[in-house]
Amino acid sequence: MASEDAEFTMLFQEFYPSLCRFLECLLGGRASVAQDLAQESFLQLHRTVWGTIPVGEARFWLYRVARNLALNEFRRGETRHRLFDRVVEALRPRTQTPEEEYETQERQELVLSMLKGLPEDQRTALLLREQEQLSYREIAEVLDVSESKVKTDIFRARTALRERWAQRVRAIGASVR
Q: String of b and e for 127-149 (b: at least 16 CB within 10 Å)?
């Protein structure tokens, strides 16, 4: 029993920060909600499957449960309007001139609005890949889908973002002339 508690504590300490970060991005920067959902994910793990699931699979189980809890938040309509605000703040460099800061903020807002436009499956897979550095196999386990679906979703997300970025650049170039 003591070794199970120690294992759970180690798992919590290792994955809680990254799970919170993932949820914050998914929820639009609402840190307190992300922390609550991360804690709820760990509670569900401990209550339902801890001891029956291999420790190596617990990470994937946690991300899957956390994602589902975040989707429930979306369905309740509490997080739709502030998607990725925390990411914008985290990515903002602190040593820029006011002009550079404005340009960076504008660019980040554009990218984030483009991310908002992606389907939820694509956005989640892309965040897990780029932010959490999970492999395609790990993402497939988290999302409970095939590895080929993950690859397709990430490919489509990246393609859509590239196309939207190129359209925006062309539009800016046309307005300058």
A: bbbeebebebebbbbbbeeeeee
